[in-house]
Automatic annotation (TrEMBL):
Residues 68-88 are annotated as: Disordered. Residues 13-62 form the HTH cro/C1-type domain. It comes from the Bacteria. SMART domains: HTH_XRE. This is HTH cro/C1-type domain-containing protein. One of its GO terms (molecular function) is DNA binding. Residues 74-88 have a biased composition (Low complexity).
Amino acid sequence: MPIVVDIDVMLARRKMSVGELAERVGITPANLAVLKNGRAKAVRFTTLAALCEVLGCQPGDLLRWEPDERGAEARPGGPAAAEEAVEA
């Protein structure tokens, strides 16, 4: 998945445990682990806001985009598909 979750980085910088963060944010440690390990399909803005408040950071400190191995060119609707549509 091209979205990388950097909660571990912020936890280390804040010297905070997953359990403490989960408690302060108001989610279960299991749900935080799903998010932290990049297995979540979605995140609520309220949860993201609470994470940022507790960790004293911006959303971009927790989430970043990295191209996947196939690259954007291979994905349906990616840049290559847009170019083909224009040329057609």
